[in-house]
Amino acid sequence: MSLDPQQTYVHLAPDGVAQEIPGERFWQLPEAAMAQLGQDWVISEYAFSADWPNWEMHPEGDEFVYLLSGALDLLLERGGQVETIALDGSGAVLVPRGVWHTAKLRAPSRMLHVTRGAGTLHRPA
Predict the structure, then answer these.
(1) Distance between the two ends of the chain, CA-based, in angstroms?
(2) How many domains are there within the chain?
(3) Tell me, what's the pLDDT at 27?
(4) For 24, which of 3, 34, 45, 65 is 20 to 30 Å away at the CA?
(5) Rounded to two decimals, what is the model's pTM?
(6) pLDDT at 71 (0 to 100)
(7) DSSP conformation class of 61
(8) Does any domain span residue 81?
């Protein structure tokens, strides 16, 4: 059966089992379930029509960010300096754990994300 990654998260458990979690249910999970999911890898896809409203940082794992379509600048803040990585059409970036990042769109974009969400922090862009 096919799934729409914009509507369904995929949780990759340490034992090799992949679990589909409908997006509307994902954000309603109890805090303990979310904490457990955050320890493992989660795959999600998002469509963006505007710049990200915030910076984010994942302290528990690197993040694989894959541009499926569109054009954007992925900004990574390292040591007080902001590095800009231009992505056009498709391409990927590995964002190291602990690195603040955000995106500025040059065209509407679709992105696939693979990360461990535990402890994710946000701040306004």
Answers:
(1) 38
(2) 1
(3) 78
(4) 65
(5) 0.88
(6) 98
(7) S
(8) yes
Check: CB of residue 114 under 8 Å from CB of residue 95. no
Radius of gyration of the chain (CA): 15
Amino acid of residue 64: F
Residue pLDDT tens, the chain, 125 long: 788 888 898 989 889 999 998 888 887 888 888 888 888 999 999 999 999 999 999 999 999 999 999 999 999 999 999 999 999 999 999 999 999 999 999 999 999 999 998 889 999 99
**Residue 3 belongs to some domain of the structure:** no
Domain around 96: 8-124
Contact 38, 118 (CB under 8 A): yes
Neighbours of 65 (CB within 10 A): 21
CA distances from 71 to 27, 59, 91 (A): 28, 27, 10
Please check whether residue 2 lies inside any domain of the structure: no
Q: What is the CATH number of the domain that holds 42?
A: 2.60.120.10
* 108 within some domain: yes
Do 37 and 14 meet the contact criterion of CB atoms below 8 Å apart?
no
